[in-house]
Design a protein that fits this description.
There is one protein chain. The chain contains 7 helices and 17 strands. With about 375 residues, the protein is an alpha+beta fold. It has 2 domains: about 150 residues, no CATH class; about 160 residues, no CATH class. Helix 1 crosses helix 3 and helix 2 runs antiparallel to helix 3. The two termini are about 40 Å apart.
Length: about 375
């Protein structure tokens, strides 16, 4: 019985690897966008690619359809391209831009139902009134090239209802994010369409969560394979910690830098710091720049990319991370440098020029 069990693991791993490699090879053919599919998305409505068009709320089709065909096609193409990025290491970097370029645009002159119904308040209303023919569109904002995603749908009685989402798209930068640093739907993350990267934002739900070592202990359960170093120090009567991570995050490789403060009444837990410092980072796989962040003032910097196939992701020891932290006070920098020299691994170097601290965590 023991012999049979010991053979099961390598067989299972072999099958999983074969499936993964087959999926990677097949996805570019299966999930490629085509001009015909893009034409379906256009549908004659005003869009980035058709600025002279108009906007009309589409009529509900016969029977029950959760998504309007145009919206359903756009969502399908987006999800398939995202899966292609994860499995094959590189999807079509412009696919999301093309999908967004054909998304209908609503202006203040268009006749629509009120669009200020917040999405998180919809569930009781939907359970009571029904949901069908969801039609997603962009709404112009006061900021040029920035659009808010809104949805228009029908109830069981055919009434049109509009709802706002927590998603904004910047057509100039290609960044899909939330409002006021909250990230997509307050997740704490934004997505760079052009660079195929997930980037952290400062005001997500995890800012309230803080950090303790139990999170690192639980990381393998989430299929995170990470190297990390903590640099605790004291300054102005407060306990601080800067922590750096790099490695494989379930489906992507990347890195993080976090700035924390420890409350006096919680000796084993750190809160996300209210102090924000300008940070940058660059993640390398071999000689290739894989992901990058900043410069940006934040308490938490992170960049994660899908630019290598999931079956070929490197262990954290083979990931190189460089970065900078711009301190605002010499005393805080000096206290941190003492901790850095004491706690850094052998393959990490770093130093300060003025108030700018730079580090290089080399691959082993």
């Amino acid at each position: 019985m023991l012999m049979k069990r010991t053979r099961l693991l390598p067989r299972a791993l072999g099958i999983a690897l074969a499936v993964c490699l087959a999926a990677s090879a097949a996805m570019p053919m299966a999930y490629a966008t085509t001009p015909e599919q893009e034409a379906v998305l256009a549908s004659g409505q005003r869009s980035i690619n058709n600025p002279e068009g108009g906007f009309e709320v589409p009529a509900a089709g016969k029977g029950y359809h959760l998504l309007h065909p145009g919206t359903g096609n756009a969502i399908r193409l987006g999800l398939l391209n995202f899966l292609q990025q994860i499995a094959n290491g590189s999807g079509d970097a412009q696919a999301f831009r093309r999908i967004y370029a054909y998304t209908p645009i609503i202006t203040e002159d268009d006749e629509t139902p009120p669009l200020d119904f917040v999405a998180v308040e919809m569930l009781p209303f939907i359970l009571k009134n029904g949901l069908r023919d969801v039609y997603l569109a962009f709404q112009e904002t006061e900021e040029p090239d920035v659009y808010r995603l809104v949805g228009i749908y029908s109830t069981r009685k055919g009434e049109k209802v509009g709802a706002a989402s927590g998603m904004f798209y910047n057509a100039a930068t290609g960044l899909t994010s939330g409002e006021n640093g909250y990230g997509l739907f307050s997740s704490g993350f934004a997505y760079s369409v052009d660079r195929e990267m997930v980037l952290t934002t400062p005001n997500g739900w995890n800012r309230k969560l803080g950090f303790n070592v139990l999170f690192d202990m639980a990381a393998p359960l989430l299929l995170f394979c990470l190297d990390t170093r903590r640099f605790p120090f004291s300054y102005q009567g407060r306990d601080w910690q800067i922590q750096i991570w790099k490695g494989f995050y379930a489906v992507a490789s990347g890195a993080e830098i976090g700035l924390y403060e420890r409350p006096a009444d919680r000796p084993f837990h750190y809160d996300a710091s209210n102090t924000e410092l300008e940070m940058t980072m660059q993640v390398y796989l071999g000689d290739k720049l894989y992901a990058e962040f900043g410069p940006e003032r934040t308490w938490w910097a992170g960049a994660f990319s899908y630019a290598s196939p999931i079956c070929e992701q490197l262990p954290p020891g083979q990931v190189r991370l460089t970065g900078t932290i711009l301190f605002e006070e010499q005393g805080m920098l000096d206290a941190f440098l003492i901790s850095f020299e004491k706690n850094k691994p052998a393959n990490m170097t770093g130093g300060a020029q003025g108030l700018l601290f730079s580090f290089d965590w080399k691959a082993r």
